Amino acid sequence: MVLGVSGSGKSTVGTILAEALKIPFDDGDDFHPIENKEKMASGQPLNDQDRQPWLESMARHLAVQAKNRGGVLACSALKEIYRQTLGQYCHLPIQWVYLSGSRELLEQRLSNRQGHFFKPELLQTQLETMEPPRYAYNVDIAKPPKTIVSEIIENMNMKKSDLGLIGLGVMGKSLTLNLAHHDINVSAYNRSVLGEEHVAKDFASTNKHLTNLQVFDDLSSFVKTLISPRKIMLMVNAGPAVDHVIQDLLPFLEEGDIMIDGGNSHYHDTTRRIDLLNQHSIHFVGCGVSGGEEGALKGPSIMPGGDKEAVDAVLPYLKQIAARDQQGKACCTNIGLQGSGHFVKMVHNGIEYAEMQLIAEAYTVLREGAGLSIDEIAVIFKEWNQGELKSYLLEITADILMVKEGDVHLVELIYDAAQQKGTGGWSTTSALEVGAPFGTISEAVMARCLSALKATRVEASEHYGDYPKNPSENTETMIAELKVAYHAARVVNHAIGFEMIRTTSTEYRWDINLSELARIWTNGCIIRSSLMEQLVQEYSDNPSKHTLLIDSFIHQLKGERITLANTVAYSLQMGIAMPVFSAAINYLHGFTSEQSSAHIIQAQRDYFGSHTYKRKDRSLEDVFHTDWQQIVE
């Protein structure tokens, strides 16, 4: 179908195209009843009622042509509803070509045309009525007709992809292959710059057996292969790199196209980019992806957020490649508006930081406090992983402890300075922005920061010497109590993370469903666990309750709180740092204390800053100030 307003060259281009393809050509003007032609000849524009019989006639003709060997039809097809009518009887998809050009060129052509029933003064009406189709191949009519036809044929022969992906790093490659393995036509692009000259070519060569995969190092060629509205996933480093790619892409995109940022971008940046691209009528989706390289390839947990229209458009593809929960549902859901998708991924990573640190602390207690061998600890972690403590992180830690180089455990050879990519720190800052307690996660971040001071720690250990240790004589009891303490600390850590999400969701009116969020974190992601599966039902039954006020967790923690406190006390007395275990019991003690120490802080603030305070024996609407120094004097 060659479409455009009068004067765009539909008949000329259509005739040449039909000859080149050796199929019949039809001009939409020939299908107009005499009444329509007379009306236009008198200078009156057609209305929708006038056009309906004309459109129906062409629709039936297209259906006949589709059953034969096809054909080319030139028709204005100004509105989307007209194009839907034209295609209603076809059993094959129509390929649309939109001829567009400047008003000046169109007027010039119409003024040179003699003996046609269409009056040039009707051009304004057509231009106002035209709804350019996003899915059509758009051609500039300023080019010679034969050049236009060559470009149309080249585009028709070009294999089209449902989704594009930019950035063939570890995650980008794995996601691309995941898409291809799920029978999704995908185009991938990687820039050709110093150090990355062969990335695209090597990836294409390695995967040339995948007939639904196209790989490019030219951005323009990459974009041309995508079906409109284009859906392009960015898998590049968070920060300025994302903005650079957006600016590079913009000249090639059209209204209604969708960009999906699948990296670990800050959610404030995502909201900013959504607002920026809205000015260009282009959608932007911030999409958290968790699962590492293996998850990206075999099925990650995916967390898209942004415009509902845009998220709904990409969800079918994301759900196809996502992991599956126990009921077989995709671990992917629409998180909410603005940067909510990247926000929950950020908090996911914060929970992950604390979970990793808890396991590391438990390992240290077993190694230094109980004097167990690494092999013995591996067996303990494997046993713990069989029941309610089951988690992906505990599972892989047990595997890690079993790996040796000769007679030496590899883990003993690893330099003890933990690295981080920033999401843990971001989550801590974000908690401060909304006033959400974040102890276990912020302490996990600080533990990594402290570990990075390796040289300073070595010097300090020489000055301070070894801390006097008095290992427990009852190792079995100590291990059993550590297991209970680990369970309690994990519940508190998850509660802190999810309550941070609840607080922020309320602040920004994102309406995040905690039960649904926990569900998509039951598989594919790094923090998948038996506890996460329990949270799905708990949040479904108690959507508005604080996590630690849910009956089942109250029952568990009432029985485990003392054991958690004793384990932390024992470990500290042994000189073992327990930042996250300690943060968990501190949060639990503070959370369950009817009377806190904050009254002292409020009095202090009023003393030095006249910040005022409220009184328990008066209305909380009233505020008070005391001249403390004068009274004391």
From TrEMBL:
<keyword id="KW-0560">Oxidoreductase</keyword>
<dbReference type="GO" id="GO:0019521">
    <property type="term" value="P:D-gluconate metabolic process"/>
</dbReference>
<comment type="pathway">
    <text>Carbohydrate acid metabolism.</text>
</comment>
<comment type="similarity">
    <text>Belongs to the 6-phosphogluconate dehydrogenase family.</text>
</comment>
<keyword id="KW-0311">Gluconate utilization</keyword>
<dbReference type="Pfam" id="PF03446">
    <property type="entry name" value="NAD_binding_2"/>
</dbReference>
<dbReference type="InterPro" id="IPR006115">
    <property type="entry name" value="6PGDH_NADP-bd"/>
</dbReference>
<dbReference type="GO" id="GO:0046316">
    <property type="term" value="F:gluconokinase activity"/>
</dbReference>
<dbReference type="InterPro" id="IPR006001">
    <property type="entry name" value="Therm_gnt_kin"/>
</dbReference>
<comment type="subunit">
    <text>Homodimer.</text>
</comment>
<protein>
    <recommendedName>
        <fullName>6-phosphogluconate dehydrogenase, decarboxylating</fullName>
        <ecNumber>1.1.1.44</ecNumber>
    </recommendedName>
</protein>
<dbReference type="InterPro" id="IPR006114">
    <property type="entry name" value="6PGDH_C"/>
</dbReference>
<dbReference type="InterPro" id="IPR013328">
    <property type="entry name" value="6PGD_dom2"/>
</dbReference>
<keyword id="KW-0570">Pentose shunt</keyword>
<dbReference type="GO" id="GO:0005524">
    <property type="term" value="F:ATP binding"/>
</dbReference>
<dbReference type="GO" id="GO:0006098">
    <property type="term" value="P:pentose-phosphate shunt"/>
</dbReference>
<keyword id="KW-0067">ATP-binding</keyword>
<dbReference type="InterPro" id="IPR031322">
    <property type="entry name" value="Shikimate/glucono_kinase"/>
</dbReference>
<dbReference type="InterPro" id="IPR008927">
    <property type="entry name" value="6-PGluconate_DH-like_C_sf"/>
</dbReference>
<comment type="pathway">
    <text>Carbohydrate degradation; pentose phosphate pathway; D-ribulose 5-phosphate from D-glucose 6-phosphate (oxidative stage): step 3/3.</text>
</comment>
<feature type="domain" description="6-phosphogluconate dehydrogenase C-terminal">
    <location>
        <begin position="341"/>
        <end position="629"/>
    </location>
</feature>
<keyword id="KW-0808">Transferase</keyword>
<comment type="function">
    <text>Catalyzes the oxidative decarboxylation of 6-phosphogluconate to ribulose 5-phosphate and CO(2), with concomitant reduction of NADP to NADPH.</text>
</comment>
<dbReference type="GO" id="GO:0004616">
    <property type="term" value="F:phosphogluconate dehydrogenase (decarboxylating) activity"/>
</dbReference>
<dbReference type="InterPro" id="IPR006113">
    <property type="entry name" value="6PGDH_Gnd/GntZ"/>
</dbReference>
<dbReference type="Pfam" id="PF01202">
    <property type="entry name" value="SKI"/>
</dbReference>
<dbReference type="GO" id="GO:0050661">
    <property type="term" value="F:NADP binding"/>
</dbReference>
<dbReference type="InterPro" id="IPR027417">
    <property type="entry name" value="P-loop_NTPase"/>
</dbReference>
<keyword id="KW-0521">NADP</keyword>
<dbReference type="Pfam" id="PF00393">
    <property type="entry name" value="6PGD"/>
</dbReference>
<keyword id="KW-0547">Nucleotide-binding</keyword>
<keyword id="KW-0418">Kinase</keyword>
<comment type="similarity">
    <text>Belongs to the gluconokinase GntK/GntV family.</text>
</comment>
<dbReference type="InterPro" id="IPR006183">
    <property type="entry name" value="Pgluconate_DH"/>
</dbReference>
<dbReference type="InterPro" id="IPR036291">
    <property type="entry name" value="NAD(P)-bd_dom_sf"/>
</dbReference>
